[in-house]
Amino acid sequence: MQKTLADLVPKTEAEEEATFVRKARAKGYLCRKLNGEGFRGWPDQMTVSPLGNIKFIEFKRPGKYKNPYEGLSANQAEVIAKLRANSCEVLVTDSANDALKFIGAL
Questions:
Q1: Other CB atoms within 10 A of residue 45 CB
Q2: Measured between alpha carbons, how far apart are the two ends of the chain, in Å?
Q3: Cβ neighbours for 47, distance < 8 A, ≥ 6 positions apart
Q4: Cβ contacts of 72 within 8 Å, gap of 6 or more
Q5: Closest residue by Cα to residue 40 from 9, 13, 79
Q6: Tens of pLDDT along the chain (106 residues)?
Q7: Using an 8 Å Cβ cutoff, are 87 and 54 in contact?
Q8: Paired residues of 45 in beta bridges
Q9: What is the pTM of this model?
């Protein structure tokens, strides 16, 4: 299969996140963008599965970091640590497919 120009150009963080949201919603998941006042440092997306399982996902720009965790701000690292301390599942990724696997949609 021959690659197109779109296959060769790296996706942006926003494109990966949009792909994730579109595919997750198609599988019946609720997706909530956590941005704006009062959500500083929170992961980009909160998802609720059809069975009621809640998971959080922080997206980073694809290919920018060897490990996506390197791109976390101090606020993000603190909020993620608090979520995990409260038994919440959180993924930091640069891949829509990894995020879909994480929530169980693939």
A1: 23
A2: 23
A3: 24, 29, 30, 31, 32, 54, 55, 56, 57, 103
A4: 58, 80, 92
A5: 79
A6: 566 655 656 689 999 999 999 999 999 999 999 887 788 899 999 999 999 999 999 999 988 888 888 889 999 999 999 999 999 999 999 999 999 999 998 8
A7: no
A8: 33, 57
A9: 0.87
